[in-house]
Amino acid sequence: MNNTLENRTWRYATKKFDATKKVSSEDFETLLEATRLSASSYGLQPYQILIIENKDIREKLKPVSWGQSQITDASHLIVFASLTNFGSELVDSYVSNVSTTRNIPEESLKEYSDFMKSNLLDLPKEVKENWTAKQAYIALGNLMQAAAELKIDTCPMEGFEADKYDEILGLAEKGLTATVVLPIGYRSEEDQTQHYAKVRKSKKELFTHI
Q1: Cα–Cα distance between 101 and 173 in angstroms, integer?
Q2: What angle do CA 107, 90, 48 make, to 5 degrees?
Q3: How far apart are CA 204 and CA 209, in angstroms?
């Protein structure tokens, strides 16, 4: 089995982390950079990635995460918070970044800027919110796979009260909402699920060649 498939087979949704083991600063920075480099629609990255380092805040988040121990026991806790709405500022900020990064005048990007705005700005709010959440999940997938390559465990979590997260983390006033949570660390020897065979659909069931 090649390393790509081996790493994906090794990975599982860790149910119990070893609270005594910490991800090194170097490895954690690699994970953050891999996430920063993630693809997103138009390259806009309409989300924020929160690194919850404060232990007291993590304790507050645990009861609104169905009491799951991963919230407090994992080495690091990441919250992906997507925009609940946006206007032209999202595109304008990106275009400015493109201009600076590639050393080209913003005027030359006006046609592309107008194209993005024509496709995005008039969408209903609920459609915008759904779209930004999808972009956050793309980044989540990239972070999880980068972690697997480094043999670092993760557990993607939707089992939490988003409105309570928004309140505790002060997200609403920033136009954000908690979308998905990812504890990062190392599996506990007591986590029996690490020994379970991975259950997935067969290739025949999952793939359709047209």
Answers
A1: 30
A2: 140
A3: 10
207, burial (CB in 10 Å: exposed 0-12, middle 13-18, buried 19+): exposed
Ordered structural domains, the chain, with CATH? 3-85+129-206 (3.40.109.10)
Quick one: which of 80, 92, 81, 79 has its CA closest to 44? 92
Helix 88-102 to helix 110-120 angle (10° resolution) is 150
- Report whether 181 contacts 87 (CB < 8 A): no
| Three-state DSSP state, 76 | strand
CA distance 81 to 69: 21
pLDDT digits (tens, 9 = 90+) for 69-117: 999 999 999 999 999 999 999 999 999 999 999 999 999 999 999 999 9
Whether 43 and 175 have beta carbons less than 8 Å apart is answered as: no
End-to-end C-alpha distance for the chain, whole angstroms: 27
